[in-house]
Amino acid sequence: MSDSGVKTDEKKQHFDDIYVAEDPVPFKERILDELQYVSDNFNRQTFDRLILDWAQQQAGSGPVNLVDLAGCFGNTTMACVNGMDYEGIRENWKNADAAKQVNQARRFDAKVTGIDISQNALAYGKSAGVYDETIDADLNAPDADKQARLDQAISEAQIMISTAALVYLETEAVERVLDAFAKGDGEGYLLVNFLNPFALEAADSAKHALLERFEFVGSMASRHRLMSQIERDNYPGEEWVMLEIWVLKRKQ
Ligand SMILES: C[S@@+](CC[C@H](N)C(=O)[O-])C[C@H]1O[C@@H](n2cnc3c(N)ncnc32)[C@H](O)[C@@H]1O
After folding, report:
1. Which range marks the domain in which residue 180 is found?
2. Does position 8 have pLDDT exceeding 60, yes or no?
3. Angle at Cα 164 formed by Cα 121 and Cα 9, nearest 5°?
């Protein structure tokens, strides 16, 4: 575990200094650019295929509550809610000035709550108009007050996205979050993804926890980003980190 509280599989590259930067420019330069972090194209594609129509219909009767769990600076919200692709997010985050405001309007009326351990990332997301509300919390060890706020925001959400994130959470933390979403009322959708080839046992246990609580809707496999040099050394012969993107819904 690093000083920032982020836990990472030791075969995976650590990026926590980037997550706690004051703006998303290092994230853009060192992850989106250097590692061709194209995963939001596929998160958006899956959101559009399986959730977007429903979200737009729901928004007819008021803002859709959406939680971006471990959302960092909000790139996956920009993809799913604002409809931005990899190139659009890179352009928006090309420098600190350009990053001040999100470039593209939301595609449906939403109230977006960003949750993360990085206060800087959340403060950026709020000031740029990516998030409406934020909760800074260590999801692996929230105190009672934070747990109550997390519980409320997650159970009131109609959509929860959590991308490149479950890998950082302990089994109990994943279960707490999923229990909170499962107890919400009415139809509700989850978009999550799993990285390959890192921490496969943790991913399997998250998948079991999801399938115990939710109905499976659909999935796809895609590229995520290039492996860093450390990762290529750890996984000889591999070049790309791969992604499985899953959508599930609340059991009615
Ligand atoms: C790879 S980023 C994910 C960003 C975005 N969802 C995506 O798919 O690109 C992982 C995020 O998890 C957050 N994180 C790591 N450990 C956490 C914890 N224990 N509690 C809350 N957030 C955590 C980090 O601060 C970081 O912003």
Report:
1. 16-250
2. no
3. 100
